[in-house]
Design goal:
The protein has 12 helices and 14 strands. It is of the alpha+beta class. The strands form 5 sheets. The chain has a 6-stranded mixed beta sheet, sandwiched between helices. A two-stranded antiparallel ribbon has the order 4-5. The chain is globular, with a radius of gyration of 27 Å.
Length: 368
């Protein structure tokens, strides 16, 4: 069709007559059609070709889904993603990984709901100590049991199933992050800025690799720990500092609870998300490559590459509308130690063990 139009346009050109006068002749003006073609060509050369080149580099490195994610980000529609009432629900799980006690326990569990209707992106941390009668264990072990018992469908699937039961909202996707990879991602980003709500000090923060030190007979085992401190206000954190911030359990000033720790985790994850979705990161193929190499080795997910691109676009457009909400702890109680809960510290619904209705209702109200 383009060639036919060109011929038609050429046929409309009127031959000029010889004019010996001194009247200045106007310069021929470039045709709009050709100007548009030039612009398109420039866009291809400047934008698309580098993406193709980078995609080839990523394929050689074993991360061959880069182009699919880019296509999803640029061209795909939100309607192509599985949704529930106009929302995409996913579960972000953080585990200690190798070298840490309870390596496969997901002490960080963050329910994230992305609105396709322009509403806020809601993030709610699920307390790790919630008791799950079905597995006779805490919710943070669902990932572990899902992996070692094949009939449960795998760690991510089973975690989503249990979370759906507790909160009453269907969870479609899951993302599992090894904390060591979390640290490396932050370092690759050049650190993140996090607002610390209140100053606190933790004098018993475990030193990695010293879990079995005998400390020359010191009964307090002081050599296994170090002191960390954070001042209130905005703090620029590298990967190790951010990891200390989210893992601290013994801080003063009311920062020694799982709920306080969950709030800190949300802050850092939100900061990481905003940094990843900044133009400075998105338009930096070298940084993207480094991040994806870390992700390849330390992140598991059941989200396909195309959906990742679509989600990234939605989250990018809503990046200034991230909302972290505290889990409704008033709907939970800590029952007396008993054999029913294997003598563990646990949390159960006020309505009774395994009765989730109040919590279901709270999440429904939050999202609607």
């Amino acid at each position: 069709m383009g060639n036919i139009k060109d011929k038609i346009k050429k046929q409309k050109v009127v031959a000029t007559t010889i004019d010996n006068s001194n009247t200045p002749k106007s310069k021929p003006q470039p045709h709009k059609f050709f100007t548009m073609r030039a612009i398109i060509l420039i866009v291809i050369l400047v934008f698309l070709l580098p993406i193709v080149a980078v995609d080839q580099i990523f394929k050689k490195a074993g991360t061959d889904n880069y182009m699919q994610a880019v296509k999803g980000f640029l061209f795909s529609k939100a309607s192509e993603v599985k949704t529930q009432d106009g929302r995409i629900n996913l579960l972000i799980l953080g585990k200690g990984g190798k070298g840490h006690e309870g390596a496969e326990l997901t002490d960080s569990m963050i329910f994230t709901s992305v609105s396709l209707k322009g509403g806020p992106i809601e993030m709610v941390s699920i307390p790790r100590d919630i008791w799950i009668p079905e597995i006779r264990a805490k919710i943070n072990s669902a990932y572990y049991w899902g992996n070692i018992q094949p009939e449960r469908g795998g760690g991510m699937y089973f975690s989503k199933q249990i979370a759906t039961e507790v909160i009453g909202q269907p969870v479609t996707y899951a993302l599992v992050v090894d904390f060591s990879g979390f640290r490396d991602i932050i370092d690759t980003l050049g650190g993140v800025d996090v607002f610390v709500d209140r100053s606190f000090t933790d004098t018993r923060y475990p030193i990695e690799g010293r879990e079995d030190y005998l400390c020359d007979g010191d009964p307090t085992l002081a050599c296994r720990y170090k002191t960390i401190h954070f001042d209130q206000g905005v703090v620029h954190m590298d990967g190790s500092t951010a990891l200390d911030f989210v893992r601290s359990r013994e801080g003063d000033n009311e920062e020694n609870t799982d709920f306080a720790r969950s709030a800190r985790q949300q802050k850092v994850i939100s900061a990481v998300g905003k940094k990843i979705l900044s133009l400075g990161t998105i338009l930096n193929p070298v940084k993207d490559y480094k991040i994806l190499m870390v992700v390849k080795n330390s992140v598991q997910t059941d989200i396909d590459a195309k959906t990742i691109g679509i989600l990234a676009k939605i989250i990018y457009l809503s990046r200034k509308n991230l909302v972290s909400t505290d889990f409704p702890t008033d709907l939970l109680v800590n029952p007396p130690s008993s054999s029913l809960y294997d003598k563990q510290y646990v949390l159960v619904p006020k309505l009774g063990n395994g009765k989730w209705q109040d919590i279901n209702d709270w999440f429904s109200l939050l999202l609607n």
